Amino acid sequence: MDESDDAFDTDLELLVDAIHAKYHYDFRHYSRVSLKRRLKTALSRLGYDSVAALGDRVLRDRTAFGTLLDFLTVHVSEMFRDPGYFRSLREAVIPVLRTYPSLKVWIAGCSTGEEAYSFAILLREEGLLARTLIYATDINSSALSAAEAGVYAADRIAGFTESHRLSGGHTSLADYYTAAYGKAVFDRSLRENIVFSDHSLATDSVFAEVHLVSCRNVLIYFDRQLQDRALGLFSDSLCRKGYLGIGARESLRFSAHHGAFAEVSRSDRIYQKRDAA
Amino acid sequence: MQEFEAIVIGASSGGIEALSVLLPAFRPELQGTVFVVVHLPRQRPSLLADVVAHRCALHVREAQDKEPIERGTLYVAPPDYHLLIDEGPQIALSIDEPINFSRPSIDALFESAADVYGDRLLGIILSGANEDGAGGLAAVRRRGGTAFVQDPNEAGCPIMIAAALKRTPDAQVLNLEKMRHRLAMLGTRPTTHAKD
Question: Is-contact A169 A83, C-beta < 8 A?
Fold first, then answer.
């Protein structure tokens, strides 16, 4: 490793510690390789020539920190990403959820909201939205504002529509948004049952008992220790025999909580909490 | 030939044909690990690992997040994820934005592998119609690793190789036949121990 790369790595660690001390955002157990790539992107887009220069600025300026936070945390998702996941939920999980008089669903790491709206639409199609409360949480407040607004670029809608159809949707996605000026604005009524809220899987604790947790492509940005913390929160939040969905290429196999969940759909990464032994 | 702890291979248009020549060359005694990124249409179900598996003596699997890296194994990047090497070393996946319109990105794999493996890394760029991999191969060389590119004259599509050579002029240009022989020599030196 040459000197400048060594300096980058050291400065990265210092910045992560300083951000934790000053702003209480804890990136200490984020996957190093992704954090490093995102920080490099931030440096080049924001025009800083070193991590130290960026650090000087963000530790003195809350607005600049907010900008950096977007680079470090926001991931762009899609509605009905991996349609097979939603199809499996409809087939294997919804029939069980239907037996409860009221439901709570937690979308952990909801970013700009695509997954939360996907769930709201799916639950409405299945006749369950009216009795469901969806908690959609993220650590990034500007992503949460975007999620709450529910406005997406119109050129993304064709892909969303196709994925919705493949997910087994039996209504038309067009029923749920109004298109205007290159934007698609999702129906306010979908939001009546969604609570968008700030929550950190790294530092916060359990806030509700839920029947289903969906946390997809969030754990890949954590190291194993933080993955275990998050999975522990999910396990503690889930009701007896509650369900957990993770990303298509994520795995519980390497986690300390591996034994706490039974497979519902191996290929779609849907699990069910086991009864404690 | 020097033993490598890891070998990273990037291919795009025309690259499957090249891989089908090269991958049978690896011996099961290979002391290193092989990582492969191939650009494929994103919604296609990933059959690549299956296609590759029966042509290769290594254990072949599609990479999963946080998987510990095993020797004598070939990991294929899953469609629509970046495949990265994290400290440990272990596998890390990411759905960050496509790079050079590509996810998985060859640059992302090569750069992250160069950080972790340094001079114990071999990077190989094969046929392709875009410029992904050029920055990655340069990173491999900058960290003291070895760089091979397929001879552009025999590649189905030479654009990716030309872009890589422009950034890494000292990369070794080899036709597939020669490259196959070089790879077949890996794992034949019993006393070499890769650094843990």
Answer: no
CATH number, domain of B52, equals 3.40.50.180
Question: How many Å apart are CA B101 and CA A187, to the nearest integer?
Answer: 32
Pick from B62, B65, B70 the residue to mutate for testing the A interface (most A CBs within 10 Å).
B65
Does B86 participate in catalysis according to the annotation?
A: no
Across A202-208, average pLDDT? 96
Q: Which residue in chain A has the smallest CA separation from B96? A: A75
Measure the CA–CA gap between A260 and A277, rounded to whole angstroms. 9
- Say what the ipTM of the complex is: 0.90
Q: pLDDT (tens digit, 9 = 90+) per residue, A88-118?
A: 999 999 999 999 999 999 999 999 999 999 9
Cα(A231)–Cα(A102) distance, rounded to whole angstroms? 24
Mean pLDDT for the stretch of residues A123-130: 97
The domains found in chain A, sorted by start residue, are 3-73 (no CATH), 83-273 (3.40.50.150)
Structure confidence at residue B187 (pLDDT): 82
Q: Rounded to whole angstroms, what are the CA distances from A214 to A85, A119, A137, A224, B106?
A: 10, 9, 11, 19, 30
- Does an H or E element contain B73, and which? strand B73-76
**CA–CA dist B176, B185 (Å, integer):** 14
In this prediction, residue A164 has a pLDDT band, given cuts at 50, 70 and 90, of: very high
User: What are the pLDDT digits (tens) for A168-181?
Assistant: 999 999 999 999 99
Q: Is the whole model's pTM more than 0.80, yes or no?
A: yes
Query: Which chain A residues are within 8 Å of B97, Cβ to Cβ?
Result: 76
Judge whether B164 and B133 are in contact, CB under 8 Å. yes
